[in-house]
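TA notes. Do not distribute before section.
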Amino acid sequence: MIPFKKPDVRAFLKTYSIKTFAVSPDTKTIVFQADFTGAPELWALEIEKGFPYQLTTIGQSVYDLRFSKDGSYILASFDYDGDEKPQIYALPLKGGELTPVRTLPGTHFFVHAQSEDGKRLYYTSDESNKTYFDICAYDIETEQERTLLKGDDARLYLSALSEDEQVFTYAKFYSNTSIVGYLWKNGESEPLIPGADNEHVTGDSTLGKDGTVYFSTNAGEEFSYLARYNRKSKTFEKVFQLDQESIKSVLLSKDESSLYVVASAGVQDKCYSFDIETGTSNEVLLPVTIVEKLTMTNSGELIVLGSTPTKPKNIYRYMQSEWMQLTDVRIMGLEEEQLSEPEVIRYPSYDGLEIEALLYQPHKENKNGYTVLLPHGGPQWADVLSYDAQAQILAYEGYQVFSPNYRGSTRYGASFTKLVEGDWGEGPRLDILEGLDYLESKDQLQSDKVIVLGGSYGGYMTLLLHGRHPERFQAAVDICGVSNLFSFIETVPESWKPIMDRWVGHPERDKDRLVKDSPITYLEKMTKPMLVVQGANDPRVVKEESDQIVEALQKQGTEIEYLVFDDEGHGFTKIENRISLYETVIRFLKEHLHV
């Protein structure tokens, strides 16, 4: 018997990641983004042949991906090294050099639709409106742009376009919990929910040939449901509602007899078919627990991209009531049973609010006794039953991983999500501490063996917990976290600034609270070893947020390491950078915890 070396952390980090996909009009080819070469590129898969071929060598993240209406070429929007400013390109079906379609450095172009004849693109752009964006139509042949609707009091998002291009739906984004939907025709707009105030979310929408709009909304409810707006009678009605589940995406079948919806049910996603004529519904059993994207081909088949906690994102095709797996992304050298299947736990917080969380257990032979607290980003986001390489790496290395969905997380109703607005540093922090106490009460945690590691808002919470409760943690890892709420409010992208008052707070009106909730207030108490990681091109949490806390801690003598990636933004898209990040994290923890 030949002895084989146990796979290390690189096995997880060299696992490929599929981000998004598009299906050709003839349903023969799927184009998708994957990092097979170590950086994100576009690949094509001819379904009947089953082996992908490379289309690009750009090494950048794609935002929008679609085939032209006649299937003769591909349209794709890419940013540059994480700057989150997508530019529009075309490329041949067999790949090769990109042809610029709509590019302007420093400008965002978010594509949403293409005309049926393939001659016009519809997108939102901040070329002349950096704060609120405009909805524009661009003629590919004449290279002329028309502004259809200017944003004035909230950022605009284009949702669905009618076949004759005379009608479209769009949304005004006031905050993550206030998104109002409208229908536009001949220069006039009307709300999809007549008489409703702004305290609701209008989500995904689709347009029928008769002008009927089907969309998701939580107007008047905690959880989003399927609704219908009749353009002719200007009436709104609920169509399909689920108990404690929020509908988040809506697909209309080609014959317009049925709808397919994806709903979030706590930490899992579900799919349902809904018969428009009879009003009946059936669950469509999924091959995944979390859906990244669901689309319908011209022939009426469903294609889904999704994952489970122990299986990375793959693409599946639904034919004759069965799912066929089209891609086969695996973790090199490991079987699924060697990964950690998280336990879903629930516990009461300090005020009785129920918090749901995921708990990853290492296999007994690897267990080192330490727990990693993993606060998620957002903060209006959630940890779910998807493949999480970070959690799996830590569990494989012997750490128990605790991921709580504290107040402010999505998937638990509108009121729950709003609880973080204007309260970044109090309620969520106490929810986390209650979770640690709960685990300790169940003998599932050793209080002197806890590490905190988080990114984005999770990085902010890492810093705040380290500063306010240093006695509870042995080390801290902050990845692109906010260190100072005042400077954060000033440096976010222009299109974010209108929401900051509600989301985070006002620098003058809420000065005392912002001081109290800023990690930089508690520098003197940050005494435990810390690793700080930052992308130099991060447009959301700019590098200065990490610079200021690193410099201050270095001056006071706190043991701190600083890792900066010059070619990344708010997240890490290149495999070698991800390997460097987590090898550094594992080495840092081993050195300071002696595990």
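Switch to the second chain here.
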Amino acid sequence: MSRTTRTDAQSPATHDADSHDMIRVHGARENNLKDVSIEIPKRRLTVFTGVSGSGKSSLVFDTIAAESKRLINETYSAFLQGFMPTMARPEVDVLDGLTTAITVDQQRMGGDPRSTVGTATDANAMLRILFSRLGKPHIGPPSAYSFNTASVRASGGITVERGAEKTKTVKATFNRTGGMCTRCEGRGKVSDIDLTQLYDDSKSLAEGAFTIPGWKSDSQWTVQVYAQSGFVDPDKPIRSFTKKEMQAFLYGEPTKVKVNGVNLTYEGLIPKIQKSFLSKDKEAMQPHIRAFVERAVTFATCPECDGTRLTEGARSSKINRKSIADACAMEIRDLAEWVRGVKEPSVAPLLTALQQTLDSFVQIGLGYLSLDRASGTLSGGEAQRVKMIRHLGSSLTDVTYVFDEPTAGLHPHDIQRMNNLLLQLRDKGNTVLVVEHKPEVIAIADHVVDLGPGAGTAGGTVCFEGTVEGLKSGDTITGRHLDDRASLKEEVRKSTGALEIRGATANNLQGVDVDIPLGVLSVITGVAGSGKSSLVHGSIPTEEGVVSVDQSPIRGSRRSNPATYTGLLDPIRKAFAKANDVKPALFSANSEGACPSCNGAGVIYSDLGIMAGTATTCEDCGGKRFDASVLEYRLGGRDISEVLAMPVTEAEEFFGSGEAATPAAHRILQRLADVGLGYLTIGQPLTTLSGGERQRLKLATHMGDKGGVYVLDEPTTGLHLADVEQLLGLLDRLVESGKSVIVIEHHQAVMAHADWIIDLGPGAGHDGGKIVFEGTPADLVAARSTLTGEHLAAYVGA
């Protein structure tokens, strides 16, 4: 009897282990979440929806994924944890049923110019081994084919201690063969510096001769090192320097000098600039720094390696008449075919692994990339899909995969392929959590969680959870907008001129000639990799009057906020200073007005070594960040901390009229409201903003630029269906104010709203790079001659 009972208890249908089939979240309060409690089914595909800023990322990334990673880190020894980033426990009462979380986000890959698609995915490592085994002539080990490894030769005496012997000098030699081109140091490009962009030689250092961003003669330490080094006369114009002074000024070796009693290192201006600017990826720089580098530095293909980054020896070794440089320059789908043609039993396991990796690129829709493509040039969507490569063939199951808008940057034609990949991961027994706005992805969900109802403080609650059908019939913003369809315009605007592009050959463009109409809303579309960005960013002249808002990420510390990023804080500080007859610096939490206890951070950070650090609200300022004496000064009855705590809409009204009227601040706040960020607090740390919010914050800052042509790169990224309508209204207002708007976009609502469409294709990579359609959206739908036309026709129901 007892034996029968025991057998029943262990049967698959009633096993205790099966009761842990939910991820349970209770009392989540991270960022704007309001005591969220929810149960998410495991081994299912769950999509999280809601307007931008509603709390999706706070729940999925900052709570569930963050706690999973923290718990995994705690399984390592205290010694190893000391080398890992410390992670604080999320603000949540209970998190139960977690599994190992793998996050695949949209963070750009690699700021290092030597980082490529091949190095980021290990495909390069496998190719190097392949060539070191089969390449003819044989030139050395895998390092001989690596552009990140320099050749090193050394010999000399080394001191060795053995047992009772005191010391013994032994002659030793060291030799390592590397593939790095010595001229460009593995970067593929060489640079020359225009000295006229670094300083005004008619001025002395004391008069502020430097024209480098951030180098101020009165307070900047770097400038003081030059002025007080003793190598040059700081009161003499640079053009009057002697040969010896100019040599020390431009090319001086690193030397210790004393400046204001502090030991610092003096170094010539040229090597200083090379280390500060040229060793970093230009694409990852802040816009004003990038603009300076583009003015001051000319980049040219390295004449010695012809841009391959590799030594002559590495390029001379070949397999089937292809060198490793040739292999890395091929489109990955072509490289996959070439690898299939390599028949050598001795490296069969390596060939199989390399083939699987390359096939994964093609499967995921990135077959048009090449392995030598710099990873910093990938879009957010491309970077996310590259990160997926290593997970597709993984044998791990019962893992939680977390995706942040995996369809970003994808043409409607490619979304089905991405859906299949997500379902493939789920069907292997994994839990897949996806933050997404696209109806096509929401449609395949097993479970939907809708957050809202609004954004920021108006969000942070679960409005709906259940099936897709339930969402459609539910009364939530997402449910109501899920079947939204923008209609084609009955009448399109007439152009006022044209931006002529002739013979464009950037990247995969095949001698493209096109006229982009001015004075209207033009949309550039086509499948991923068809040449849209190459046409717009690589061919449109970057002359004055063209304002480009690309996808490069906003960087900011926890001290940065919308007020500092947009320049809004400057007129606010000046208004406070004028009203109270004091210095503007008092109203900066990063300057004289900072609370002395927390240095203007508002919280006290305690480093607990291997344990997660803690942040406690500063007792002296109560988290307000300012010294108590500063808070006594008021403008319009509010102190500076109260103003920074205002949402954009309230601040817009506050600075729009009355005693606090400040036109400069009001204009910036209007632009923030125009892009749909009216709910943001102007003093909210940038680190708490979602990807979509950061994109729109960037757009708002550029709206103040004086330019006649606006170029926007996928402005719908991170936007909820309900917000797309507001974006279309903003684009219309820009056009009606006399601007020309050129948008790279995949969203069908933006295509339908366009006055003119330029469609590139027909495919990606070498199958693209041609204009396959020019005309109005109505003509594109009527013709249905391209993939874009077919999908747009289906979207508008034509």
